[in-house]
Every structure is written in structure tokens, then in C-alpha cells.
Write a structure and sequence with these properties.
The complex is a heterodimer of chains A (about 220) and B (about 140). Chain A is about 35% helix and about 20% strand. Chain A has seven helices and eight strands; from the N terminus they run E-H-E-E-H-H-H-E-H-E-H-E-E-E-H. A five-stranded mixed β-sheet of chain A has the order 4-5-8-7-6, with helices on one face. A three-stranded mixed β-sheet of chain A has the order 1-2-3. In chain A, strand 1, helix 1 and strand 2 form a beta-alpha-beta unit. The N and C termini of chain A lie far apart (about 55 Å). The mean pLDDT of chain A is about 90. Chain B is of the alpha/beta class. Chain B has a three-stranded parallel β-sheet with strand order 3-2-4, sandwiched between helices. In chain B, helix 2 runs parallel beside helix 3. The chains are: A alpha/beta (about 220), B alpha/beta (about 140). Chains A and B meet through strand 1, strand 2, strand 3, helix 2 and helix 3 of A and helix 1, strand 1, helix 2, helix 3 and strand 4 of B. Strand 1 of chain A pairs parallel with strand 4 of chain B.
């Protein structure tokens, strides 16, 4: 066994349509199939991709003896969902970039983090490594207090307040200012922020939904 | 979509822990196998294992390849389950050591590896890196 492994988990921003870490030199890729690969928010699964010599060990120890086997029905659903992966990813990539650019124009938005924006510090690396696009997930903050974040979400009609990401539907989560790992994050995240998984609805509908919620909170 | 598959005439010499043939769905099944082949091809990899969730895949990899005394270098913006598995569970229960690093600073990552390989760390096992760093810092929740 080698002395060092480089493992990369890519799902949130990427999916293999946008980025394939093994081709970039990683030993393993971990995917949450629950996200973009299934893409419909109706099944759960995960995958480890890599060399057979290591995967045989993992298969024997972690599947057979830890018992984290996927159900046949979930495997079937994910196989069916994955058929439309390239179509969906193109729409996620396009929508998220449009939404990120829109959010940058809103006065009440304090920051937008999306690797497709030139303002993002990882943009140059993303251009090199994410050749299909920059994915559907972004984060943004508000010039607002804790309660305003929650009220903003309560006004949304198209976008759903829920965890997970990479579903066909747009999903938003408010992460508050008291997260235990906040100290590891850049300063602009410390006051709380939204994680926004931009779905494949019409981009105009997503932006209109955000706009009416911003208007209700006087953030435009 | 069966849980159990028909056994051969004499099953007494079967390896009940084998993942190599359809025997019992916990050991593997047809739907899983087809999905694995598809994903290996999509990712450009040699082989693939599909499990019950993304976190099952993470814990499956860590459980199988890490040993007590190993050292893991992982990103400060990694997914919360990676943080819990490595920095709390495996660390406290199985003595896997951890270092959290800002992986956008490649020099810092290299330095951490070099320190470890030079024996600067307490433990002298293998080192592993998780180069994960999510650009949107969105790893707090599922």
C-alpha cells in the first residue's frame, strides 16, 4: 500500500460531468449519489471509485462486514436518474452562474461565494479543473440580522428550505452564526449565511422568487 | 431485486463473506453491480463500490484503509461528516491522528505532509490527505 493517499470528494459543486478527480491524479473519488448523479431527491446512495486493489479491501471490510449496502431499489432509481446527468448539469451550471451574478447586484447581499465568479479566490483553479461548468451550489450572506435570514426564507415560494443539494428543485439552508466550525471559515461567513443549491427550474423563476423575498425585507 | 439468490447444489464450501457472486444482497447484487460499472466509467476509474449513502462511502473508505497510528491531513472546509468521522470518532476511538489544513494553500499542505513524513508528528503510521475543500463552504449540513 502506498504511504499517502489523495482522496477527493467532489459531489457538491461538481459531479463527474464537471470534474473527474481520478483523471486529475486523485487515488479515490467519493460521490454522494444522493446529490447530482441521482438528481431527483428521491434516493440515497454513495460511491467510492478507485483502483481495484484497494476497492477489494473496502468491499470485503466495509460492505460485507459493516453492512452499508445500498438497497436494490435505490440502486435502480439512481441508475435511472443518472441517464439525464449531462442535461441536468448543463442547466444547474447555467442557472447557478446567472443567480450568482444576480445576487452580486443586490444591495442587501454581503457576499457571494461561487467558483464560477471571477471574484472567487479559487476561480482560476476551477477554470482549470471544472471543465464542464461550476456546478449548482453557491453560498451568500445578507447585510441583516439572524431573524431577517429566517424571514427571508419564509417568503420564498419556488425555492424550498431543505438540506441536501443537487436535486432538480432549488434548496436553501440558513447556517447560523453559532456553528462549531465557524472559526475555520473565512470571516464573511461568521455572521451566518445561506447555502443555496440552484435547481433546474427556469432561471427567471428562481431570480423572481429571490427578488420578491428581498423586496419584502427591504434588501433590494 | 432479490435479497437472496438461489444456492448451488452443494453450498457447504461457499465463502459466506464473498462479495464476488450473487449470494445475499448485503454482499452485493445485480442492480448495485450495474450501477458500479456505470460510475467507474463516468469517473474514469478502474473499479467502483456503491453503498447506502455518501457517508457510508466515506466511512467505508476510512474504516478499511486507516489503522491506529495513521495520520490524516484534511481540509478546513470539509463536509461535516468527514470532520466527525476523522476528527472525533476515528481519532477518539481508534487513535487516528488528524491535522486540519487550509487546502487552498498548497504550500501549507506540502509542509504538513513533510512534517509528518519526517516524524515530527507523534505517530509514525501512514499519512493520508483529503484534498477536499468546498469552494462554497457549504459542508455544514447534508
Amino acid at each position: 500500500m502506498k504511504t499517502a493517499h489523495c482522496c477527493r470528494w467532489t459531489t457538491p459543486s461538481a459531479s463527474p460531468y464537471n470534474q473527474r478527480p481520478i483523471e486529475l491524479g486523485a487515488d479515490f473519488t467519493i460521490e454522494s449519489l444522493t446529490k447530482y448523479i441521482n438528481g431527483h431527491g428521491d434516493a440515497m446512495g454513495g460511491a467510492i471509485i478507485g483502483k481495484k486493489e484497494y476497492l477489494d479491501i473496502i468491499r470485503a471490510q466495509s460492505q460485507v462486514n459493516l453492512g452499508a449496502t445500498i438497497s436494490p431499489f435505490n440502486a435502480w432509481l439512481i441508475m435511472r436518474g443518472s441517464v439525464t446527468l449531462p442535461l441536468r448539469m448543463r442547466q444547474h451550471n447555467e442557472n447557478a452562474l446567472r443567480v450568482a451574478k444576480y445576487l452580486q447586484t443586490v444591495k442587501g447581499v454581503s457576499f457571494v461565494a461561487y467558483p464560477g465568479l471571477e471574484s472567487h479566490k479559487g476561480h482560476d483553479i476551477a477554470v482549470k479543473q471544472m471543465q464542464g461548468g461550476f456546478g449548482g451550489v453557491l453560498s451568500f450572506g445578507l447585510h441583516a440580522d439572524h431573524d431577517t435570514y429566517n424571514r427571508f426564507v419564509s417568503h420564498l415560494k419556488v425555492i424550498t428550505s431543505a438540506v441536501s443539494l443537487g436535486h432538480d428543485e432549488s434548496l436553501i439552508v440558513f447556517l447560523g452564526e453559532n456553528d462549531e466550525r465557524q472559526y475555520l471559515y473565512p470571516e464573511e461567513f461568521h455572521g451566518g449565511f445561506f447555502r443555496f443549491s440552484v435547481g433546474i427550474e427556469d432561471a427567471e423563476d428562481i431570480i423572481a422568487d429571490l427578488e420578491q423575498a428581498f423586496a419584502k425585507e427591504g434588501l433590494l | 431485486m432479490a435479497n437472496s439468490y438461489a444456492l448451488p447444489y452443494d453450498p457447504s464450501d461457499l465463502n459466506w463473506s464473498s462479495a464476488g457472486k450473487n449470494l445475499y444482497t448485503r454482499n452485493g447484487g445485480s442492480n448495485q453491480q450495474y450501477l458500479q460499472e456505470k460510475l467507474a466509467s463516468l469517473e474514469g476509474g478502474e473499479d467502483c463500490i456503491v453503498l447506502a449513502s455518501g457517508v457510508a462511502a466515506l466511512s467505508g473508505l476510512f474504516f478499511a484503509l486507516l489503522e491506529s497510528g495513521d495520520h490524516v491531513v484534511f481540509s478546513s472546509v470539509t463536509y461535516i461528516a468527514v470532520y466527525r468521522l476523522l476528527h472525533e470518532l476515528l481519532k477518539n476511538k481508534f487513535h487516528v491522528d488528524t491535522t486540519i489544513v487550509d487546502t487552498s494553500d498548497l504550500e501549507a499542505v506540502k509542509r504538513r505532509f513533510a512534517e509528518h513524513q519526517a516524524g515530527a508528528y507523534r505517530n509514525a503510521g501512514k499519512s493520508h490527505a483529503d484534498y477536499l475543500g468546498h469552494p462554497c463552504h457549504c459542508g455544514h449540513c447534508p
